[in-house]
Design a protein that fits this description.
The protein is mostly helical. It has two domains: 2-36; 63-177, Cytochrome Bc1 Complex, Chain D, domain 2 (Orthogonal Bundle), CATH 1.10.760. It contains ten helices and two strands, in the order H-H-H-E-E-H-H-H-H-H-H-H. Strands 1-2 form a two-stranded antiparallel sheet. Helix 8 (133-142) packs across helix 9. The radius of gyration is 29 Å and the shape is globular. The chain starts with a helix and ends with a helix. Bound molecules: heme C (HEC). Heme C binds next to helix 5 and helix 8.
Length: 198
């Protein structure tokens, strides 16, 4: 009898209508949070691009940016102008992600290779020196033989910056003292002869 009256009392304090509304509000809140999560996801720039699809309005540029190709052919150009800052970012990313196998010079003798991983080709062989920039983007995006894809770890813009840095590494291997601007050439030669005297 006492229990019953206690129960009755509760019913009066929380009529079923209020309970239902509270449940409804909690539910809406949950849906709202889900939607907010969804929206955040849509805004993220590194959101993976579904292969074979491109955003509307920039068909040409997006094909190059996300596949390294133009009209289905690997392109020898970059989807945005490469600045010094892009090259520096490319060097930083290259040093993090690629040197374990490709080493700091691109010779293909990184630490993991020295411990038995199949050696990659040097970036300084003719085939890779003459390969279009899009090839490097493509290899990072889709992997190649025993090299796995970097698509989930390196966003597309950074893959291009790495490709640009590899181009710089390749050029630096071919460069002669004549390619160095005058003032820097003198400094370099001074340093070099100081080195030889030591
Ligand atoms: C765990 C080792 C490893 C890492 C790290 C790695 N690679 Fe490779 N890479 C390889 C191997 C091995 C090959 C040769 C694949 C084959 O021919 O089977 C290769 C091949 C390549 C090639 C040449 C493809 C061709 O045409 O022969 C390029 C370009 C390349 N890698 C770029 C990169 C870049 C850029 C990164 C960093 C984002 C990277 N790799 C990170 C192991 C690695």
């Amino acid at each position: 009898m006492r229990l019953e009256s206690k129960f009755e009392g509760r019913r009066r304090i929380f009529p079923s209508g209020i309970l239902a509304r509270a449940r409804g509000i909690a539910c809406l809140g949950a849906i709202g949070m889900l939607l907010a999560g969804c929206r955040l996801d849509m805004q993220r720039s590194e959101r993976p691009v579904v292969p074979g699809t491109v955003a509307r309005g920039h068909l040409h540029l997006d094909e190059l940016l996300y596949t390294g190709k133009e009209n289905g052919v690997l392109a020898d150009k970059f989807p945005f102008p490469i600045t010094r800052a892009d090259l520096e970012r490319g060097r930083e990313r290259y040093n993090i992600y690629c040197t374990p196998c490709h080493d700091y010079t691109g010779g293909g003798h990184g630490m993991i290779v020295q411990r038995g991983f199949p050696p990659p080709p040097s970036f300084h062989i003719d085939r890779l020196r003459t390969a279009p920039a899009g090839h490097f983007f493509d290899v990072m995006t889709n992997g190649d033989g025993s090299m796995y894809s970097y698509a989930t770890r390196v966003e597309p813009e950074d893959r291009w910056r790495i490709a640009a840095y590899i181009r710089a590494l390749q050029l630096s291997h071919q460069a002669t003292i004549q390619d160095v601007p005058g003032a820097m050439r003198r400094k370099l030669m001074e340093e070099n002869s100081a080195e030889q005297i030591r």
